[in-house]
Amino acid sequence: MEKPYVLGIDIGGTNTVFGVVDARGTILYSGSIKTGKYEEINDYVAALAEGLQGVIAQAGGKDKIKGIGVGAPNGNYFSGCIEFAPNLPWKGTIPLAELISEKVGIPVALTNDANAAAIGEMTYGVARGMKDFIVITLGTGVGSGIVIGGNLVYGHDGFAGELGHVIVRREHGRLCGCGRYGCLETYASATGVARTARELLINRTDESLLRSLNPDEITSKDVFDAAQKGDQLSLEIFNITGKILGEAFADFVAFSSPEAIILFGGLAKSGDLLMKPIKEAMEKNMLKVFQGKTKLLFSQLKESDAAVLGASALGWEIKEAVEI
Amino acid sequence: MEKPYVLGIDIGGTNTVFGVVDARGTILYSGSIKTGKYEEINDYVAALAEGLQGVIAQAGGKDKIKGIGVGAPNGNYFSGCIEFAPNLPWKGTIPLAELISEKVGIPVALTNDANAAAIGEMTYGVARGMKDFIVITLGTGVGSGIVIGGNLVYGHDGFAGELGHVIVRREHGRLCGCGRYGCLETYASATGVARTARELLINRTDESLLRSLNPDEITSKDVFDAAQKGDQLSLEIFNITGKILGEAFADFVAFSSPEAIILFGGLAKSGDLLMKPIKEAMEKNMLKVFQGKTKLLFSQLKESDAAVLGASALGWEIKEAVEI
Predict the structure, then answer these.
(1) Is the ipTM here above 0.90?
(2) CA-CA to B117 of 20 to 30 Å: which in A75, A229, B127, B220?
(3) Taking CA B111 as the corner, what is the angle to CA B94 and CA B76, rounded to the nearest 5 degrees?
(4) CA B272/CA A232 separation, integer angstroms
């Protein structure tokens, strides 16, 4: 009997959201639990399994589910483990894929959230039909999922695709959460945009709408709102951010020559404010042979659904692996 | 009847070398022609075909040859063309794979020289059994061949893997042959090493064996010889070169997390002089999750044979494609 659905689980620091998804990318039944409420991983898995049973029952039972895909910070596809995730309650290495699969009786695959986003774009999103592309997630941090020849790049250890941590400023670079200096993430994430705002406000004296705010509390959203109103300093912050991203993208293209680079996540909602300077810097910094070839696209998946859809897409892949 | 051999052709600006190779990577019969002698591509192909007929006859006829692999500067795997190669006599786009295959009656695959080196390492060299690795060729320029999941990375257009042209110095970078500034190649190639030597000799006043040479004629070999004799300035040139390579490698690892990075080409013969500072800088600049995992290796293929072996390995792949 054909199994028509997959189940996607997106694990965030605050909430764990899950849903039953059909082949067209419609979330049919969904639910959520509070991730932070469960200090003990076994309590978490028990609560999650209970939630999953609910949506599985709605879908007509576990015989309808081809596989479960999990997107989680620091998730390793090869081991099925979450490994030392700083923003989750459980320390060390957690064999989450195994724990869930034992409880629920459905095969489970797990990867990190950016990889899940890339698989989601390939299965349901703007990357349908593409074999070579890169998804860049612009949120609190900068993540990436790289697809080459139709396959997600996991590397020899399952941790490939950390493009938020390539060094874009070798000298006087910003301190990153990873302990190093000058990572792309320190400039191009939502928090990076806020850092740029604080830096410009301190170093300069020109007027700006941002000066009415408490500098320590400025967010990328504040910068976006001010830029929308034509605030010059805020527009410049987007230009700086876009330029750094575009320069980095030109190097990524020299590596894998993708058909498209797809922007995903909160900051990607800035639209042309960000896209224009990215495109300009990317083309300007690109080796001639690549110029004008790589598309820059925004994810079109509804943001509230995208994480679950991305994770669920991994569920179809399990099925394929089993069929071989 | 099983075909026991492949034929490899390495096209350089000066010579074109070719050889019949068996499954163990032994070059059984070989020959060469002068590339530069033929201004007309048809004359070149005619002369090459004549040379190939010779070794094919020695091997027992074309029924013994599974396929022909060609490694050429600016060779595109997808199109089988050499496209705008600055160091070859023929301008524009040359459909070389087709031209050779028509003349000789054996299927031909073509790629650039660095990709051929990577396939050679995977088939006959230190990368046997590896599915994820990067070959960096350190010659007059810096090239790269990237293997992910056992497949060479060609990108959506066939031009992926231009790691010699990632930008390692965004400010005050050296002018590259590609027209941009700060490319890895301008520092880490043999000519880059000579440039570093000239720069240090001008900017500093300390004694060095290199000061007895005409600065305009210094080569990386001169720097190597002086370093071998303990010349401090020359040792420092290798440290600078290795540091820049190691920093770049740390970023490459963040992309594809390879099991190994393999050094190939003239400059790779510098051994520990280069390897030590590369390793140090790579580990120091690597994201924690990758530290201590990526092997740094030298190609073990005999340099005179490596280019032909690498190209020939592509010949086995054609066979596979036909079999499907």
Answers:
(1) yes
(2) B220
(3) 50
(4) 52
Distance CA B128, CA B296 (A): 15
Please report, for the domain that includes residue A245, its CATH number. Answer: 3.30.420.40
The per-residue pLDDT of chain A, averaged, comes to 94
Q: How far is A255 from chain B (nearest CA, A)?
A: 5
In this complex, the residue of B155, B167, B171 whose CB is nearest that of residue A251 is B167
Q: Are B78 and B154 contained in the same domain?
A: no
pLDDT of A266 > 90? The answer is no
CB contact under 8 A, B259 and A153: no
| Distant-in-sequence, close-in-space partners of B50: CB < 8 Å, separation ≥ 6 | none
Closest CA to A48 of A112, A97, A86: A97
For A167, which DSSP code? B
Nearest chain A residue to B249, by CA: A166
> Do the domain assignments include residue B125?
no
A216 and A288, same domain (yes or no): yes
The C-alpha of B230 sits at a distance from chain A's nearest C-alpha, in angstroms, of: 30
Residues B106, B255, single domain; the answer is no
Distance from CA of A283 to the nearest CA of B (A): 12
Give the H or E element holding residue B15: strand B15-22
Parent domain of A82:
5-120+303-323
Domain count, chain B: 2
- DSSP, collapsed to helix, strand or coil, labels residue A138 as strand
Is the overall model pTM greater than 0.80, yes or no? Answer: yes
**A230 and A286 co-located in one domain:** yes
Of A149, A163, A171, the CB nearest to B255: A163
